[in-house]
Amino acid sequence: AGIINFCANNYLGLSSHPEVIRAAVEALEKFGAGLSSVRFICGTQSIHKDLEEKIARFHQREDAILYASCFDANAGIFEALLTPEDAVLSDELNHASIIDGIRLCKANKYRYKHMDMQDLEAKLKEAQKHRLRLVATDGAFSMDGDIAPLREICQLAQKYNALVFIDECHATGFLGPNGRGTDELLGVMDKVTIINSTLGKALGGAAGGYTTGPKPLIDLLRQRSRPYLFSNSLPPAVVGCASKALDLLMESNAIAQSMAAKTQRFRSKMTAAGFTISGKDHPICPVMLGDARLASVMAEDMLNRGIYVIGFSYPVVPKGKARIRVQISAVHSDEDIDHCVEAFTEVGRKHGALP
Ligand code: PLP
Prior knowledge:
Elements: E1 4-5, H1 18-31, H2 39-42, H3 46-59, E2 63-67, H4 70-81, E3 87-91, H5 96-104, E4 108-112, H6 117-126, E5 133-138, H7 150-159, E6 162-167, H8 182-185, E7 194-198, E8 209-213, H9 215-224, H10 226-229, H11 236-251, H12 254-273, E9 284-290, H13 292-304, E10 307-308, E11 310-312, E12 322-327, H14 334-350
Parallel strand pairs: 1-10, 3-4, 3-5, 5-6, 6-7
Antiparallel strand pairs: 2-8, 7-8, 9-12, 11-12
Helix pairs in contact: 1-11, 3-11, 4-5, 4-9, 6-7, 12-14
């Protein structure tokens, strides 16, 4: 009967959208399979520049720069921007690529407790002695589906003269009234200075990442960011997909709204069934189970019922906080969502996760 995928980052279903696929085929035919070059030698075509311009417009920023992935965008930004006289303050649960990017830079490093504003303030006070301060956080955290308190972060940043950087991989395209992301959702688009995000999740799901922000910063990255300077240009088909995905999202937010309604349906039905779902309103819906073995056997049994989900346990999540991370997509039908909830209820009862 087929298996329904509930563990992809394909939040808007755009990776199988016919117009996105057609755009990739057209770009492939018109611009070739690849550039065999980094951007600054002979790896820049009109479509790369158009996509950068479109990304900046989408986020209402001055400019944007493409990378082969958001991992690269995160690996390349801190070292290019910060010197040993500066400081970076990072949420302890930030994505591995932010952590690696920060490791590569020579700035003074501060790690604040997850979304803990008191701790961030204490660290900002301590960091006053440095020339420049950058607060770095995921906009939405992928393991818990929780959203960074950006209003409070931006207030603190203003008070202590810091810049704010957000990683929007799990927000771009669907959070906020027009899908611009966490900064739009929380009304701080004019206060967040730098956004890094991916083209490999909601925006077509192929590959690629970017930084968007003030033009002088983007100019600096083009001169200094190592993953940009020393890695191959994005292939035309990938650029075509992302560009079409952004067109669709700028035309209408109907797809994002449909995903939000399905997320709501899943979260409320699962809660009514007796499960604890972490986070709020986000399509990442972690079904909290606690025990690692329980998460793994339940995920296996879900597959037997045609639902593809994965159990996460230590060291990916803290000890005793094992879970099955469900991800909702606009391509799921209401029937798919209901089928998933029914399967969870049956499997949860069978393994003692529900009474
Ligand atoms: N940042 C976050 C929060 C992510 O979840 C991911 C992907 O897992 C990345 C960065 C890396 O994105 P990409 O797959 O484009 O390298």
